[in-house]
Amino acid sequence: MTNSLRPHGYQRAPLPPAREAEPPPPTPHRDTAGHQTGPPTAPAKPEPKQRDAFFDNAKYLAIVLVAMGHAWEPLTDGSRTAEALYMTVYAFHMPAFILISGYFSRSFDMRPHRLRRLITGIAVPYLIFEIAYTFFKRWADDDPTYDFSLLDPWYLTWFLIALFVWRMTTPIWKIIRWPIPVSLAIATLASVSPDIGDDLDLQRVLQFLPFFVIGLHMKAEHFQRIRTPRTRLVALPVFAGAVAFAYWAGPRMNSAWFYRRDSVQELAAPPWTGPVMTLAMFGCSMVLVACFFAWVPRRRMWFTALGAGTLYGYLLHGFLAKGSRFWGWYDDYAWLHKPLGEIAVTLVAATVVTLLCTPPVQRLFRFAIEPKMEWAFRKDPGEQARSRTSAA
Asked: Any transmembrane segments, and where (predicted)?
């Protein structure tokens, strides 16, 4: 069966609509003598930008798969079917999430308001949840000596530190030639570099990097090409084939390959497998990501609004996911390892993460996940000037 290593865990603004040309200011009506006969008509207020339902749907479905994967993890040692589903989902759910994160990072630069957003939306939640998870582990796992470390992300917080690093390097990926091959080369070198260590989870940062870079260079029409009836038809046998292959490979393959947190040496594999597995898994992940996007609805659904709260579901469901292990739920209730129990676990995981993405939960935890922190930053002179101009 698979190796006992399991993932430590695991990211926003929607794609703005194409900006239309602003209409010219209205010309006041004048009589034949050239005198103005009435005040100029005030320009109509621009309509608020609409979120793209496709990306909100994709984020919601991806976070549901994340929660299901965490719920299936304790079942994989006793169920080959659960293991096959687990490996299939782990092959593409985080690559899909990271690709979307890269797509929405295309406009990132070093301007002050974007850096403030990077700090409040990623760095501060990382600090808060790294502390929260540390105290949770000390209490729930009865491990009062567990060390706190900002440099060693625990469980789900690795994704926040990875997203911080990826976004900070965005300007580089936007100016160099051949960014995707370069990122793949870096991921390959990382897979055979055991000395990288655990600081900032750099193995994951570097091995998942190509998906972020691809997202940076994708355009709206690329997603349109994926979402075709023909692609959806092809996606079904592809997913079926992936599950069948995972069912065969489960007892023969170390599933830690999918976590991308270890080098080949740490996985007790020969060095030549690093480049081979990196490229093979990259290809498989991209195919499954495309199949996943092909089936994401493009219209508004009952869960579309929840796509704006996926980071809440992601960070908060980890307490229940880890608590279920610390408190021995899977050991105490043997029926959970039966087919009906596995179905129940799946439904509970999907329901819990859905509830954690809802607006009431967002309002309750916004102070930790999306703090404004205006008190912590200087006023941007450029923004002040724009405010004065708009007020005039």
From this structure: 84-105, 117-136, 148-166, 232-250, 276-295, 302-320, 340-358
